[in-house]
Amino acid sequence: MADATATVLAALKADGENALKRLFEILAVPSISTDPAHSADCRKAADWCAAQLSEIGFTAQAHKTAGQPMVLGQYKPPLDNAAPHVLFYGHYDVQPPDPLDEWTTPPFKPSVVTDTEHGEVITGRGSSDDKGQFMTFFEACRAWKTAQGGLPMRVTVLLEGEEESGSPSLGPFLKSHASELAADVALVCDTTQWDKDTPAITTTLRGLAFSEVTIKGPSRDLHSGMYGGPVRNPIRVLSNILGDLYDASGRICIPGFYDAIREPKMAQIEQWRSLGFDAEQFLGSVGLSRSAGENGRTPLEQLWSRPTAEINGIYGGYQGPGTKTVIPASATAKVSFRLVPGQEPEKILKGFRTFVKERLPTDCKAEFNGEGGSPAVGFDTDTIAFRVAADAIAEEWGQRPVFVGCGASIPIVQSFKTVLGMNTLLIGFALNDDRIHAPNEKYNLSSFQRGARSWVRIINRLSQVPI
Prior knowledge:
Shape: globular
Strand content: 15-25%
Structural class: alpha+beta
Strand order of the largest sheet: 1-2-6-3-7-17
């Protein structure tokens, strides 16, 4: 299939200007799933994506859900073959663009501008997360159709419209369409390269558990002059409990928190250390100078293979201007835990609840709300799918992709495993400085172009092996 790949890459190059126009069309749609005012825009984006897939030769439809539509496309080669079936996942919804006054170009009027470090970049909300990313796959599929009349294997595409708002419709959709979505391997593009010149395949994702804890004390807010002293202040109680979460060495003090952790193999740690990660630059870019994580662990190990406990928000009492001398009736904190392989979200939350309750003084009680989470995932890099994908990427980039971890969570990957029974290849072409979720989001033009070329090669390679 080497000759086929060459013709497909030539077709991709010849259509480069039109590919950019198509990307600009979808970037111009403000498909903000968190804002009900943009529900029509989300439907517009879903219909646009389904129409694009239909042009490429897929049987595609935007399916209604209780929330935003799911786009489901199916491509089956005209003749049955032994090639594997892959499921490609992305999302068409985007984060709100606020604060608008910090954008140098309008968030929904995409353009190509020159960046001092990266050269030509594509600007606009969603350019990197995730429209620019899934469009690299769309354009690769289009080039296969143009040059070869179609794709060399069966491909299913799933795009959701609520990834940025918690994916409430995704679980029910996966279960109700499991037979259509089940494949040999899933492809997810919502990840990054190592740097602008080095491709990567993400092999681990941290899990997540989250809770909102409220400490309640007196039956109502009280005057601090009339009650201060004999009355216990819920804010102080909550602060003391949260302060006990970590010890001086950076370890989390919840009993049993580390019991089930599966440590990465030394070979994996050595590979991470060989990447030349610049911890000083990483921290310096956000105005910091020293790692605050566990003693004896490098920042990269802390990000990719160690769990965390974070206080994401805390409030109680008077929040307005000036002074109001009040003892509040309650205080609340939002807490989250990043998890690693071996940890179960419910066990971690149970341990946290016990940790809080054991520290409650007389006349105080704790309530827990808004809890949930998903476990960490990790993949065997010795599988055929990983090997051939790495070979394909190496063909395009002239170097093998590095295997990296990710400190964040992508719950859909765990759902693919538990609901559909398949592993995932996490291959993306974004960069850490693409400013996703922030003003002035961008996507390197080279990432868009080489990402599409990489998918052409990956499709070719995967179509030739049993998975």
